[in-house]
Design goal:
alpha+beta; about 25% strand; two-stranded antiparallel sheet; 3 helices; binds nickel (II) ion; 5-stranded antiparallel β-sheet
Length: about 180
């Protein structure tokens, strides 16, 4: 897991070609990394690759939220096409920013386009928690992170910890790549 401060997390990620080498293996490795880290979403820049590949696992919360049973999805070359005017506020965290959780306001619904793991194209509206996770992950593809969205006051309060994190001062239970 690449941690806050690593330059790849601030890069604009590129679409990939359908014959991208070992794509199936990459996707399965990303799901494994996500599971080990006990997260719900992972974007390729977080494993050091500036490409538009995202995996989301909501199956891991399906004991509490049965509607997400079997929700294991891959989003290739994903883009947000439209956003609802309605906004929602939810607490977010990020595997690349261990230990920090903040409220973030985002559109409640978004229309997205992407290819699934079979390279079948999709164009759909998503809402609720799915919309939240997708916006967080698709942000990673633009080189953005959730802390960019928090209020200036909260940003001031977490600034020191972020600066420390970028210098390697943090702890997490999964394998992390940071500046030590
Ligand atoms: Ni994240």
């Amino acid at each position: 897991m690449y941690i806050f401060g690593q330059p790849v997390l601030r890069k604009h990620a590129e679409d990939i070609a359908p014959d991208y080498p070992d794509l199936k293996e990459l996707i399965s490795n990303m799901f494994e990394t996500l599971k080990n880290a006990e997260g719900v979403g992972l974007a390729a820049p977080q494993v050091g690759l500036p490409i538009r590949v995202v995996v989301i696992d909501l199956d891991c919360i399906s004991d509490d939220e049965p509607q997400y049973k079997g929700f294991l999805r891959t989003y290739i070359n994903g883009h947000i096409l439209e956003e609802s005017e309605e906004q929602a506020t939810m607490e977010e965290g990020c595997l690349s920013i261990p230990g920090i959780h903040e409220n973030v306001k985002r559109p409640a619904k978004v229309r997205i386009e992407y290819l699934d793991e079979n390279l079948t194209p999709h164009d759909e509206w998503v809402e609720g928690f799915v919309a939240r996770v997708i916006q967080h992950e698709f942000d990673h593809l633009e080189g953005k992170m959730f802390v960019d969205h928090v209020s200036p006051l909260r940003k001031q309060l977490i600034k020191k910890r972020l600066v420390g994190m970028a210098k390697g001062k943090f702890s997490c239970h999964y394998k992390a790549k940071a500046n030590h």
